[in-house]
C-alpha cells in the first residue's frame, strides 16, 4: 500500500468520524417542515399491558422501517398510569401521511381500538428540539 | 507502514463505524434509570417571545454542556401558544440534580420567574423511547 493511499484512507476516516461528533454538539435541528405532536391517550385499565405491548411493536416497526418517523417517545404518567403520552416527530407531512398507511400502523389501530378510551392529538410548534443525538 | 498495521487500522475503523450504525437501528433504549418527564407550562402572553428566547438559551447550554441531559424538546401548542410543553430526558437522578445547580439553569429560572403563570411537572415511566438517533 502506498503512503498516499494510507493518508487518503486516514483522511476519509477522520471525516467520517468528525461528522457524527459534529451532530452530537448541535442542539438545534431545522424544524420548519417537521411535524411535532403530542398525543394524549387514556387506556382501559384492564387492557393496559396488552395496549403497551401493541404500542411497543408499532413504535419499533415505525422507527425501523420508516425513514420519516423520527421519534415516537411513549410514556405513562407515574401518578396515573392509564394516561399515556406520545411525542411524535415526523420529517414532514408526507412522512406522516405515509405512516398512516403502513401495515404496522393499521394493525396497531385495529388491535387497540377497544383499548383506547380517549385520544387527543395536540399539534405543536417546536420552540427548540434539543437532543444529544447518539 | 506494514500490512499488518494497515489491517489493524482498517479493523479499528470498521468497529468505530459499526458502532453508530448499530445504535441507529436500535429503537429501544435502556430506560431503567432514565428520568423522563413532561413539563406543562402556561406563559404570560405579553412575555411569550422573551420567554421562548430564554428557554432556547437554556436548552442549548444544557445539551451542549451537560452529558446527562439527553433531550429537552420544547414546543408550544398550536391552538394555544401560551401553553408550552417540554419533554425532558435525563440519564439518571444525579444528572437531573446536577442540572438544577448549573449557572444556565439558575439564570433561566430567575429570568423567567415572572413569565411563567403555571408549571406542572408530570413524572413518567417510559413505555418505549423510539428514535432514529442521528
Task: Please tell me about this protein's structure.
The structure is a homodimer of 134-residue chains. With 134 residues, chain A is α+β, with helices and mostly antiparallel strands. Chain A has a domain at 35-124: Alpha-Beta Plaits (2-Layer Sandwich), CATH 3.30.70.100. In chain A, 43% of the residues lie in helices and 34% in strands. Chain A has four helices and four strands. Chain A has helices spanning 3-24, 48-65, 93-100, 103-112; strands spanning 35-43, 69-77, 80-90, 116-131. In chain A, helix 2 (48-65) runs antiparallel to helix 4. Residues 13-29 of chain A have low confidence and may be disordered. The interface between A and B is large, with 51 and 52 residues.
What's the arrangement of secondary structure elements?
The structure is a homodimer of 134-residue chains.
Chain A: H1 3-24, E1 35-43, H2 48-65, E2 69-77, E3 80-90, H3 93-100, H4 103-112, E4 116-131
Antiparallel strand pairs in A: 1-3, 1-4, 2-3
Question: Would you summarize the structure shown here?
Answer:
Two copies of one chain form a homodimer. By secondary structure, chain A is α+β, with helices and mostly antiparallel strands. Chain A has four helices and four strands, in the order αβαββααβ.
Amino acid at each position: 500500500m502506498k503512503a498516499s493511499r494510507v493518508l487518503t484512507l486516514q483522511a476519509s476516516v477522520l471525516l467520517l468520524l468528525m461528522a457524527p461528533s459534529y451532530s452530537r454538539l448541535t442542539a438545534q435541528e431545522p424544524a420548519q417542515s417537521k411535524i411535532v405532536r403530542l398525543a394524549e391517550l387514556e387506556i382501559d385499565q384492564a387492557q393496559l399491558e396488552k395496549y403497551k405491548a401493541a404500542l411497543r411493536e408499532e413504535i419499533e416497526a415505525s422507527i425501523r422501517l420508516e425513514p420519516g418517523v423520527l421519534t415516537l417517545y411513549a410514556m405513562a404518567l407515574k401518578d396515573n398510569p392509564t394516561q399515556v403520552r406520545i411525542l411524535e416527530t415526523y420529517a414532514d407531512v408526507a412522512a406522516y401521511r405515509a405512516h398512516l398507511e403502513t401495515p404496522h400502523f393499521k394493525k396497531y389501530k385495529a388491535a387497540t381500538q377497544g383499548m383506547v378510551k380517549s385520544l387527543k392529538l395536540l399539534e405543536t410548534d417546536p420552540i427548540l428540539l434539543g437532543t444529544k443525538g447518539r
